[in-house]
Design brief:
about 100 residues, 1 helix
Length: about 100
């Protein structure tokens, strides 16, 4: 389940702080039936991070058509919520 991710346009998780301290740093954890992968995301707000994660999930489903797909938004080790692909649509669940 550790195949390389096609989400290469997102930066892999690193310990480098964001270039602009005003932006919040979030983690995105992708999971499909084929692979799992994490990436860094900087955003002004959680709402902006949710919008980016939703777009990434929808693009992933279009590109790969996995049978299972979700993207979890993380703040450090804390899970904030998850976008799941269910019955042809993205669904948000706050955690």
């Amino acid at each position: 389940m550790d195949k390389a991710s096609p989400r290469a346009h997102l930066k892999p998780v690193t310990d480098v702080p964001p270039p602009d301290a005003a932006l919040k740093r979030y983690g995105l954890a992708f999971l499909t039936n084929e692979w799992q992968w994490e990436a860094d995301l900087t955003a002004d707000t959680l709402e902006e991070a949710k919008a980016v994660a939703k777009r990434e999930l929808e693009q992933l489903v279009r590109d790969e058509a996995p049978t299972l797909a979700c993207v979890t938004i993380l703040d450090g080790d804390r899970k904030l919520g998850v976008w799941d692909w269910v019955e042809g649509r993205s669904h948000w669940t706050a955690l």
